Amino acid sequence: MTDPSEAAPRTAAVAAVDQGRRTWIAITCGAGAVGGVATAVPFVSTFAPSERARAAGAPVQVDIGGIPPGGKLTVEWRGKPVWIVRRTKEQIEALKKTDAEVADPNSDRKAYPIPSYAKNEWRSIKPEYLVVVGICSHLGCSPSDKFTPGAQPSLPADWQGGFLCPCHGSTFDLAGRVFKNKPAPDNLEVPPHMYVSDTTLLIGEDKKA
Ligand code: FES
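A: This is the predicted complex of the input protein with FE2/S2 (inorganic) cluster.
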């Protein structure tokens, strides 16, 4: 009998919205591996894909309608956390200020080739929504949300909001671009994705797929 979860994208109903709170723990500091993946969020129960579908990397359909401005939703795709951040106007504007401070402002590096539809100043299809894999390009830790601008521990006085990797201090702006002179060599990966409707995203598949 065919498992329906293998034939159609998995659907995450309004899943956990985590504002400034890390809900995905995938840290093995120093060991260089993503290990001990633990989740503490309700979305796990809404996914329930079969193991075979998970291994095959089935696309994940996500309802993003419940994410408030400035909020973030974490979903799982191919065993990895994918973050969907609904950026505010102020956060979108702030990306201009970090242009000169990030290592690869135009996403030209090839380690994680960015889909053509996200190769722009926001690194996204729609400026409002950032969609990235939440795994540091250094040794695979999961960075923490640091959305509040301004000086704070481990961050500069002109911090505009973004992510801080707790393992070795790499920082990323709210487009997932890594700052200069940090251990992480690349920006956060943008997975293939597309909008099925204004409030529904499909992660793991795009029009070209
Ligand atoms: S894993 Fe080393 S800085 Fe992120």
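Confidence is low (pLDDT under 50) at residues 1-8, 11-48. The first helix runs from residue 4 to 7.
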